[in-house]
Write a structure and sequence with these properties.
By secondary structure, this protein is mainly alpha-helical. The protein contains seven helices and two strands. It has two domains: about 110 residues, no CATH class; about 100 residues, no CATH class. Strands 1-2 form a two-stranded antiparallel sheet. The chain is globular and about 60 Å long.
Length: about 210
């Protein structure tokens, strides 16, 4: 994906998110529900303005950061060779945030129970999409499984990211389906965290094998 296309899509996502906030703002209760527990019950409140501005503000700040980071990459860690993949990942992150904002703000508007399982499903789907691209990410300091072992050895980096890509696609799809069909919140959450964290430990053992330190 070209940088201009990624920026256009990202700005459109932010604009739609901000517009949705502006439309709902007059109808939000005050104080406004802003936090839900693992059972989906409201356990925190905030002001309507904060709820409407917080996520769009975070998304704008994140977009600026993601645009700036490639220009700050040193030497061989520049993203030039895989910048199209970087741009896709940038759009995916903003799309995930925008989706979460829609779900949260709609629950806020009605003071309804927020489904933690649905929120996890959004994250599982995000991981499934991300897994399709993470294997194409090359060594850098900003995106991917950045451990001392992947940064130190390009071969380790590539092996770990190809594995993580396959893992995240499988866990993302299976996790979303199982969660929708009744898998408990904590098991789903544990599965998501395990998929996110496992590549970190995997990188150490891959490094030991590649470096001959078994």
């Amino acid at each position: 994906m070209k940088r201009s296309t990624a920026l256009a899509i990202s700005l459109a996502i932010i604009a739609v998110t901000a517009l949705y906030s502006a439309i709902l703002y007059p109808n939000l209760p005050n104080p406004t529900p802003s936090h839900w527990n693992a059972e989906g019950k409201i356990d925190g409140y905030s002001s309507p303005l904060t709820m409407c501005l917080l996520m769009p503000g975070i998304m704008v700040a994140l977009l600026l950061l993601l645009v700036a980071l490639p220009k700050m990459s040193p030497g061989r860690f520049k993203v030039d060779s895989w910048v199209r993949v970087y741009n896709v990942i940038m759009v995916l992150v903003l799309a995930m945030q925008g989706t979460l904002h829609f779900v949260i703000l709609n629950a806020t508007r009605t003071s309804a129970t927020l489904s933690p399982k649905f929120m996890l499903c959004v994250m599982f789907v995000f991981f499934a999409f991300l897994g399709n691209f993470i294997g194409q990410v090359r060594q850098n300091f900003w995106v991917g499984v950045r451990t001392p072992w992947t940064i130190a050895n390009e071969t380790v980096w590539n092996i770990v990211h190809r594995f993580a890509g396959r893992l995240w696609v499988v866990v993302g799809i299976v996790g979303a389906i199982l969660t929708l069909f009744g898998l408990s919140f904590w098991i789903s959450f544990g599965l998501l965290m395990a998929a996110a964290i496992f590549p970190t430990f995997h990188s150490y053992f891959v490094w030991r094998e590649v470096e001959g330190n078994v």
